[in-house]
Amino acid sequence: MHVSFDPWSPAFVADPYPTYAALRAGGRAHYFEPTRQWLIPHYADVSGLLRDRRLGRTYLHRFTHEEFGRTAPPAAHEPFTVLNGQGLLDLEAPDHTRIRRLVSKAFTPRTVERLAPTVRRLAAELVDAFVAEGGGDLLAAVAEPLPVAVIAEMLGVPESDRALLRPWSAAICGMYELNPSEETARAAVRASADFSAYLRALIAERRGKPGDDLISALIAAHDEGERLSEQEMISTCVLLLNAGHEATVNTTVNGWRTLFRHPHQLEALRADHGMLPTAVEELLRYDTPLQLFERWVLDDIEIDGTVIPRGSEVALLFGSANRDPERFARPDELDLSRPDNPHISLGAGIHYCLGAPLARVELAASFGELLRRAPEMRLAAEPEWNPGFVIRGLKELRVEL
Question: What is the DSSP code string of 255-289?
Answer without folding.
Answer: HHHHHHT-HHHHHHHHH-GGGHHHHHHHHHHHT-S
